[in-house]
Amino acid sequence: MLFHSPEFLSLLAVTVTVYYTFPRARLYLLALANALFYAVAGLPWLGLFVAMALLTYLASKRAQPDLGPSARRWVWLGVTANLLNLGFFKYTNFVFQSLNRYLHLTADSKLISVILPIGISFYTFQLIAYLVDVGRGRQRPSRSFLEFWVFISFFAHLVAGPIMRAKDFLPQVENADQVRFNTGEFKYGLYLLLMGMAKKVILADTLAPLADSRFAAGTSIGALSAWVAAYLFTFQIYFDFSAYSDMALGIGHLFGFRLTQNFFTPYLSDGPREFWQRWHVTLSTWIRDYVYIPLGGSRVKVPRQLFNLILAMTLSGLWHGAAWTFAAWGLYHGVLAAVERLYRKHVETPVAGTGLGRRVVTSWVYRAASVFAWFHLTVIGWVFFRAPTITQALVMIKHMVLLRPLGFSYSELAMVGFAGLLFIGHALERVVREHEVRVHDVWRRLVPTPARALFYAAAVVLVATFMKGKEAAFIYFRF
Amino acid sequence: MRALAYTLIYLLVIQLVLGLVVPVGLVYHYRLDFNVVKNSPAADYDVVLDQVGREIKREKLTDYLVILGDSVGYSGPGGPEQSLGYYLEDISRAQGRPMRVFNLSMPAMQAGDIYTAYLKLHEHGISTRHVAVNFIYGGFVARNPDPPAATWFQDDLRRLDPEAYAYAVPSLKANGRIKPSGYADWFRRVVYPRVSILRYRDFLRAVIDRYIPGTGPDEVVDTRPWYEKPGLPQLLQAHEYQRLFDDTPFVMDESNPQVYFFDRLIARAQADGSDLTFFQTPDNPELMRTNVTKPGYAANLRRITQYFAAKPVRFVDLEGQISPRLFADHVHLVPEGYRQMAGLLWREWLKDAAWVQPGPTGRAGRGDVVALP
């Protein structure tokens, strides 16, 4: 059931009403609502999810460091079980298809038809983070399975994040019965929900066919169309994924919960470091805390740091999907992050040490040029992510870089202009998000209530109109 | 919270007036727009019927023709102003006996859908005084198990005629048309039709799509004749097309869903006093020569004729009446073909005194089989 479907919204309304009517029953209500929400994907998948949650919960009870040396074994047991679960459902097809393809083996067709349970990548990462944090002594185990289940399976973040940490969300769940209805909080939740729906159905779903039709041209695509395809997908995936995050946050606010914001207008970043602090933040920090730092982080020598960085980013790519294109996307970003690190250390920092150099490096022109360059490197990266094969991705990128064959047409040129407008809209989004309180204040002061209500009603009508007969799923549901 | 209250008021107003202010042309223009309704055909078909019913009431129409049928009745692959309904209105006006035609055909409609659509007409205030139903030879071919007895209107069939639905269930099951339904299905079936914005959203979206490049209809209108389409003969060798010309003797009893639903439709139309015409649209005799020259094919055509001869309906057999040059493929026509089809039909109807002058009478041909020259 998708967040932007009327049937989900009707159930949400009922759940919110019951939630505030019976405060003492909140945990039971949320536990049930979460289970029902996930059960739509299939009862066996719900069973699997409950089993993994229960196993992790029980392991966490024995994983506290003060329980002696066996605690570590429980952490490893729980983490291994979760990784095996994820590996089996997510990577079995990929492994066997790759073996078949590259080693000319003939794997059993039953093995290469494993279905991916929805949200498995997200809940696995949450379970691992929780268990590792307990094992490190940074998080006390959950008091009850009921609270743990609500924390891990809260339907707002269950299938596409944000990847919530226990330290951020578990205390909120434990105190759910203390939540009082707050008009401001509730309105903010509705605002985020409506904005997320608008982003998804009006922007992302409208861009999708425009990008799809161009990617479908395969290797025969011209340079201009390839750029347009990549631009459009760049914004499609941002609107799609950040829409889900906005809606998740909005739903959280309706229940009085604060979920972690995942996106901060990432295409205005001036390089990989800033980008990953603005794009899918909860995944980036997860990779940093549970992959990059355990590999040695910044404590090891520079070549090893860079290798670890590239490895972590490649694994992050593979987390998105079991395909070489995702691995290539992660590798590409890993290499760019490594190059940036070297550039900052060996070029930018020394240059900034001189008077003129400092003025250049801190100037808005330098910042704008960096944003422009990094945005286009990001756009190129999305080609790996979206193209069906590495070959097509490489051919497209070759055409984009060499501008040959150009395949010029005025309509495609107009689409480049359209992409420019989307970028300006993206910049405006940052202004609005960073000054939400002020914008809200001005909006309330200058626009009379009936006019504001007219705008809200129009937004509802527009969103409902743009909803498809069969709603398009979010891109990140695949992961 | 005042803004929320105002918003709810605005939404309530929209709920109440949207259906009244939507222009008919948005949902019906000489036929429905399959590109618009294909995502929710059953629900959107009701919107079309609603609007057509409203237009009939607004214009106080009493003398009009309703066409029910498949993609040939719909007049694919041409546009709405190249369709059967358009040409029939045009010809009727030119001949001094203007008649409104409401072409409610939809691609892939099966006999079960046509029967259900007929039952739905009354619900929307549309008279069944003059109803014409198109079918093709392939409609009588045994199902294996495709196509289902009803493609689009299973839920309406269950509601309007449970006995007929029970008959269709095995065919629907065999074609995977009956799926376990959950809350979401119930919500879509029960709530969507009652919420104006959701009810009309496909049509409003179609208006918006006109202004968004690349999001309009994905069906390319190709009205070239069949002989200008390279690869078509090879394509038509595929089983899904060849089965439409199967020369195995037709089973003309009620074990054949086409016969079952036509029998039911005829019985219902007779009870309503409807003037019911069945017209068999032709197969392309040149492109499908190998198929249509088989003795079994000709024998099956005779079985169809005999079937209708025994029924109290008018039957117009258009097989062999349209030049092969006017076909777009194996069964569909180019616009001029549909114009000719409209002319042939109109000529036959005018042979009936009840059709010559508009009036409240007009019964079916009672077994007359019209032999065209």
Fold and architecture overview:
The complex is a heterodimer of chains A (479) and B (373). By secondary structure, chain A is mainly alpha-helical. Chain A has 2 domains: 6-180, no CATH class; 184-478, no CATH class. Helices cover 72% and strands 0% of the residues of chain A. Chain A is built from 19 helices and no strands. Chain A has helices at residues 6-21, 26-39, 43-61, 70-102, 120-135, 145-153, 166-174, 183-215, 223-254, 272-276, 281-292, 302-320, 324-352, 355-361, 364-386, 390-402, 410-434, 436-446, 449-466. In chain A, helix 2 (26-39) packs across helix 6 (145-153), helix 9 packs across helix 15 and helix 11 packs across helix 12 (302-320). In chain B, strands 2-1-3-4-5-6 form a 6-stranded parallel beta sheet, sandwiched between helices. In chain B, 42% of the residues are buried. Chain B has 2 domains: 1-51 and 181-212, no CATH class; 62-179 and 235-370, Rossmann fold, CATH 3.40.50.1110. Chain B is of the alpha/beta class. Chain B contains 18 helices and 6 strands. In chain B, helix 7 packs across helix 8 (154-160). Chain B has helices at residues 2-21, 24-27, 34-37, 41-58, 71-74, 84-94, 111-123, 154-160, 162-174, 183-190, 196-209, 232-235, 239-242, 257-272, 289-292, 295-309, 335-350, 353-356; strands spanning 64-68, 100-103, 130-135, 275-280, 314-317, 369-370. Helices cover 48% and strands 7% of the residues of chain B. The chains are: A mainly alpha (479), B alpha/beta (373). Chains A and B meet through helix 1, helix 8 and helix 19 of A and helix 1, helix 10 and helix 11 of B.
